[in-house]
Design goal:
By secondary structure, the chain is of the alpha+beta class. The protein has 28 helices and seven strands.
Length: about 725
């Protein structure tokens, strides 16, 4: 998943407010020792305070994580917002005729202090959350929403943007400058710049209300993930689990001051347990804990919040002149309309559920042969899926895991980045980090040695950190005014630390996720543009997942496995017969993977196409899935009450389809390599970097993809990649 890094306030108020609020979990978060609350500052000097001051040090300056004080966040944000509004007013009230130079260039240079504060604020919210941080979050969320609305609703500013867009001089701008003008104009228009004053006020009020609701939703979910767990005190109930998972569960229990073995309420903890645990009753208990997050009819229940969010979104969409929130959101996506997104999903859905029925039949045969009277239920899917994998392909994931060391997979990613994009990675010391687990690498051009950027890696789970995996962009690459600004990015995961002296072993799915998130990082690191608004990953959400999903394909290449899939005990590379089994099983379980994802995407879209019809989340989920003939052995990947993508912010709302839309492009793009002779073809890689990874949003994604591939992305490539029958045209 991509999370915004260096926030640019001028890129559209609503979008940016949503992205800021990805980070925000209000009220009382899980207890964390991440940071202590210092005494309230008696004096705040923005020129010297680490939150607001220019970043200093090597590599063009780095975030001063080691000097952050929680008590400084509120004054820092208030001062930075005030400074930002002064900058905006100076641009808007300029008496000179509007030009690109006196309007767009200063806009690109504005808000830098607020961006510095926001990135560190966001990191504390997602990676270092603590009870001391909560009151500041609760107060600042709506204030940030109101702040961004003041900018996008500034009539004088929008008139200047519009004047430059419509001026004869616009024809003489460079292609990137024209693109920048277009992006600004469309972002401001999309966020309501053309509305009358009364309607703008209503929109701003709704945005602030939504900001609070997003935050409450996130906080409820984070609380359930951090504080609910299954504790096991009888080792016999761990039958079937490999020793590495037992050790991780014991370490998790110890971290909570408990004896025994603990299964956290997160996917990275529950999925392995559901795959290997023989105790069916315990599998059911763990499964129900996980899928019930936010839906327990208690103080952290999210159902009423969802109903209110949907209501406010529908109301706001009408103020913008759109029939539903889905129509408003997709106006700026590649899909353009909900109908286009639905067409793709409905084209794939029949093949996905058809494959699920085949998978369940295979699992039921295995269960019947055991003679225990088991009829496959959702908590059995992972368990019997693994037995079928073993029977069909003689492939046991436990056989693969000893070859998947976390450190070696990181080296594999670096090697692929070098082969495809000519990037080299070198660990550097002395760079401030926000937690001792974080390591920093300098990224350079392998041929010239030129500095490209920094990559921060935060791999381990801890209290106060969001579950899952994601990428952040701390600073955007740009060269506005001839000044070269290099990028800073990060990848964040939630692996459990191994015993001292032993490597961290990860699953194949975890390794795939690492490559996915690293794809986002490479998208940011490869950026080569002039203006920060168009830099790196600043593309529509149904395109931003394309580079990351594409990079997943390189994990299974023999070149990677032979070099980096090294047995942690013997030091020997993975046997070729095991590599062959992995490749033969590449489309295994695609019915489950596609259906659980697509069910979430369809429910998301249908919820937001319902307009102002009041929605009971549980009832809507049940009725919609029934109408879709959802296999009863599977639940949605993200049930509504835990669907942070769509109810923790606006950005992926009515947009979870984006992963499928992007995967059409990734499947088609990888075919370009196979057609050329292999995944490391230099000419195809050069085109990929030139037209996808390096150009940011300087070119319309539809045009950029055609420049790379020579034609539009084909859904047939996706179907073939997943082993589904290709529909006849």
């Amino acid at each position: 998943m991509y999370k915004i890094g260096m926030l640019r306030i001028f890129a559209g108020a609503l979008l940016l407010t949503a992205l800021v609020l990805i980070y925000m979990q209000f009220d009382t978060p899980p207890t964390s020792a991440a940071a202590e609350t210092p005494a309230q500052p008696t004096q705040f000097d923005p020129a010297t305070n680490p939150l607001t001051a220019d970043w200093t040090g090597s590599y063009g300056g780095v975030p001063p994580f080691d000097k952050v004080k929680i008590a400084d966040f509120k004054p820092a944000m208030e001062i930075a917002m005030a400074q930002n509004l002064k900058e905006i007013d100076a641009i808007a009230n300029n008496k000179a005729r509007p030009t690109f130079a006196n309007t767009f260039v200063p806009l690109e240079n504005s808000g830098q202090m607020l961006a510095r504060v926001n990135i560190i604020f966001g990191i504390w919210a997602t990676n270092m959350n603590s009870a001391e941080f909560a009151p500041i979050q609760a107060e600042m969320g709506p204030k940030l929403a109101a702040h961004y609305d003041k900018i996008v609703q500034n009539g004088a500013l929008f008139k200047r943007i519009e004047a430059v867009k419509n001026s004869p001089a616009a024809k003489r701008l460079t292609s990137e400058q024209k693109r920048l003008v277009k992006v600004y104009y469309e972002n401001f228009t999309h966020a309501g710049a053309k509305l009358d004053a009364a309607t703008k006020a209503k929109v701003s009020k709704l945005n602030q209300e939504l900001a609070s609701l997003f935050a409450k939703f996130n906080q409820n979910l984070q609380g359930e993930e951090g504080e609910l767990f299954v504790l096991i005190d009888n080792e016999a109930q761990l039958s079937g689990l490999p020793q590495s998972l037992k050790d991780a569960a014991a370490a998790d229990a110890q971290s909570k001051g408990k004896k025994g073995w603990m299964i956290r309420n997160t996917r990275s903890s529950t999925d392995p347990f559901l795959t290997y645990a023989d105790d069916r009753g315990l599998r059911e208990k763990v499964w129900k804990m996980f899928v019930s997050r936010g839906d327990n009819n208690d103080s952290r229940d999210n159902k009423a919040i969802i109903t209110q969010i949907l209501k406010l979104r529908a109301e706001r969409a009408k103020l913008f002149g759109f029939p539903t929130h889905a129509h408003w959101i997709l106006e700026q996506k590649m899909a353009k309309t909900p109908e286009n997104a639905m067409k793709l999903m409905e084209e794939v859905w029949p093949a996905a559920i058809g494959r699920v029925h085949e998978e369940v039949a295979d699992m039921q045969k295995v269960a019947d042969a055991e003679g225990k009277g088991v009829k496959i239920e959702p908590w059995d899917y992972h368990y019997y899926m693994e037995k079928v994998r073993k029977a069909k392909y003689d492939l046991d994931q436990n056989e693969v895991k000893p070859y998947l060391q976390l450190d070696k997979m990181r080296e594999a990613m670096f090697w692929v980045a070098g082969e495809l994009f000519g990037l080299g990675f070198k660990k550097v010391e002395g760079i401030p980090v926000f937690h001792p687990d974080v390591t920093v690498y300098e990224v350079s051009d392998k041929k010239t040695g030129k500095h490209v950027g920094l990559w921060y890696f935060d791999p381990y789970a801890r209290d106060g950190k969001d579950s899952g995996a994601w990428m952040n962009q701390y600073r955007n690459q740009s060269r506005i005014g001839g000044k070269e600004i290099t990028t800073i990015v990060s990848n964040n995961s939630n692996f459990v630390k191994a015993k001292p002296g032993e490597p961290v072993l990860i699953s194949w799915d975890d390794a795939t996720t690492m490559f996915h998130e690293f794809g986002h990082a490479l998208h940011g690191l490869s950026s080569n543009v002039t203006y920060p608004t168009l830099s790196g990953t600043a593309v529509p959400s149904d395109y931003v997942e394309f580079p990351s999903q594409l990079l997943e394909h390189w994990l299974s290449t023999p070149e990677v496995l032979n070099r980096f899939a090294i047995n942690y005990k013997t030091g020997k590379p993975i046997p070729q017969e095991l590599v062959k089994k992995i490749q033969e099983a590449s489309t295994f379980n695609q019915g489950f993977d596609t259906t659980e994802y697509l069910a979430s995407a369809l429910v998301d879209m249908k919820m937001h196409l319902a307009g102002d019809t009041p929605i009971d989340p549980d009832k809507f989920e049940q009725e919609t899935l029934a109408a879709l003939n959802m296999p009863k052995e599977i639940v949605m990947r993200h049930r509504p009450t835990q669907f942070r993508h769509i109810f923790g912010s606006d950005d992926y709302s009515a947009g979870y389809y984006s992963y499928l839309w992007s995967d059409v492009h990734s499947a088609d793009a990888f075919t370009a390599f196979t057609e050329a002779g292999g995944p490391y073809d230099k000419k195809v890689a050069a085109r990929l970097k030139k037209y996808v990874f390096s150009i940011g949003n300087t070119i319309d994604p539809l045009i950029a993809y055609k420049l790379f591939r020579g034609h539009d992305a084909r859904v047939e490539a996706l179907m073939e990649d997943r082993g589904f029958p290709v529909p006849k045209k």
